[in-house]
Design goal:
Blueprint lengths: L4 H5 L16 E5 L2 E4 H10 L10 H23 L6 H24 L6 H11 L8 E9 L2 H12 L4 H8 L3 H4 L4 E6 L7 H8 L6 E7 L2 E11 L10 H9 L2 H10 L9 E9 L2 H12 L4 H8 L3 H4 L4 E6 L16 H12 L10 E3 L2 E11 L6 H32 L5 H8 L11
Antiparallel strand pairs: 1-2, 3-4, 3-6, 5-6, 7-8, 7-10, 9-10
Helix pairs in contact: 11-16
């Protein structure tokens, strides 16, 4: 967490003034100002942690050091007139505009137009369907056979002390010394066998449970207490509620039906290729690969394509009838012609074979296919999650455009076409108009 003086001095501009607290709250006096507890609270919040959440003395000292350093820099800058420089004033004005816009959008459109009352109503209606898991405090005794476990159940029913029996008989030494305590178990736990979870949460507390068999042996259980699940806090799931309101099941299903083809997965290949400067070089490297030399090593040592060379010529997913970024990421000068020729050649190969030299715009390539994955046609069940993600992005984009358009309409936006043309074409000669 520690920031150096230099990093602190050149950190992005934050409009924050230290030295505003009451005099009795000032912890460190600096020149004409100082640092108070109120200042530290505000300063800590800028770094994402309110002061009340910082309880360790060393972290509080570090925060104080940072605030003092900032105030020293600030007062030194004021003393030398930096705040009056035109360029500094311009940066301050721009920072103010950004902060105002950010706060405005968060408050005016932070929930995509839904009011807190609407979100709260949805929360109240659905919160019981998203309770946190029930939690049980559990003890157990582990023995090898059912014959050993049954007498222990009888003794517990007769009033024997569970802790004493666990310490005497349990084969689980870790919990036996603590009277069989294994701690808290959640009702959705995947860490213990499901038959134990079922036994724990389907039996009354303070009665023996079992014996229940698992791969470890036979368990006699005892539940000291169970806490019911609680609804999640409203403030923590407001974002999820907004998403639910934006993406009803019917709307997502309609989106999927309209775009069903986009959720199909075509056949794909995992392959490697080597790009060489000419056909002769490609043929020579191909001969070495066919003779058994490691293709990845040949690619790393000989390919003239720097992007793929670092990966041993590897392309992890090349899809049938889809563009492929051969030379670096999309937008790095990959042509449609290269992509089509490359994928056609790749899908004509058998696994482990090496293609004949293939001419591309940047040289000659040889290809080998390492793995082939058949495609599939999507169904609503397989595509539901992805369809929801994509529809959410569409709805968010639509609502953002609608919101911005409403602000333009409210304020009135007029475009000066002549000035706009001059701005877009600064080197164009604008003919003079007749007076």
């Amino acid at each position: 967490m520690k920031r150096s003086l230099l990093l602190l001095a050149i950190a992005p501009l934050v409009l924050f003034t230290i030295g505003c607290g009451e005099e009795e709250d000032v912890i460190v006096e600096i020149g004409d100002g100082g640092v108070s507890t109120e200042d530290l609270d505000a300063f800590a919040t800028l770094y994402g942690r309110p002061l009340e959440s910082i309880t360790a003395a060393d972290e509080r000292q570090e925060l104080l050091d940072m605030a003092v350093e900032m105030e020293v820099f600030y007062q030194a800058a004021l003393a030398r007139g930096f705040d009056e420089r035109p360029e500094v004033q311009a940066e301050i004005e721009e920072a103010i505009r950004k902060i105002v816009v950010q706060r405005f959008v968060i408050e005016d459109f932070g929930n995509y137009g839904y009011s807190d009352d609407e979100l709260r109503a949805y929360y109240d209606e659905h919160r019981d369907g998203s309770l946190t898991p029930r939690i049980a405090t559990v003890r157990h005794i582990l023995v090898e056979t059912e014959g050993e476990a049954l007498p222990l159940v009888d003794r517990l029913n007769a009033g024997a002390d569970f802790a004493a029996l666990a310490m005497q008989y349990s084969a689980d030494e870790g919990s036996a010394k603590d009277g069989g305590v294994i701690g808290e178990i959640e009702s959705n736990s995947k860490m213990i066998p499901p038959q134990l979870v079922a036994g724990i949460f389907n039996a009354p507390v303070n009665t023996p449970i079992g014996p229940i068999q698992t791969e470890f042996g036979w368990h006699v259980l005892w539940v000291d207490a169970v806490r019911d699940g609680l609804p999640p806090q409203f403030e923590l799931i407001k974002g999820q509620i907004v998403e639910e309101l934006l993406c009803s099941d019917d709307a997502v299903r309609a989106y999927y039906e309209e775009h069903k083809g986009e959720f199909n997965r075509p056949d794909s290949l995992r392959l490697r290729f080597i790009l060489l400067p000419d056909e002769a070089a490609a043929a020579a490297i191909r001969s070495r690969a066919v003779a058994g030399e490691d293709f990845a090593t040949l690619a790393a040592n000989n390919s003239i394509d720097p992007y793929s060379r670092e990966q041993g010529g590897l392309l992890t997913a090349v899809f049938r009838d889809m563009p492929v970024a051969i030379f670096g990421p999309p937008g790095a000068g990959n042509s449609d012609a290269d992509s089509k020729a490359f994928t056609t050649a790749a899908f004509s190969l058998e696994l482990g074979t090496v293609s004949a030299p293939l001419q591309l715009s940047r040289g000659w390539a040889i290809i080998t296919v390492e793995d082939s994955v058949p495609g599939f046609t999507s169904t609503w069940e397989t595509a539901r999650s992805l369809a929801r993600q994509q529809y959410l992005l569409v709805r968010q984009s639509e609502m953002e455009r609608e919101y911005y358009s409403s602000l333009e309409t409210e304020l009135g936006v007029y475009k000066n076409e002549t000035a706009l043309a001059e701005y877009l074409n600064p080197t164009a000669t604008i003919p003079p108009t007749d007076e």
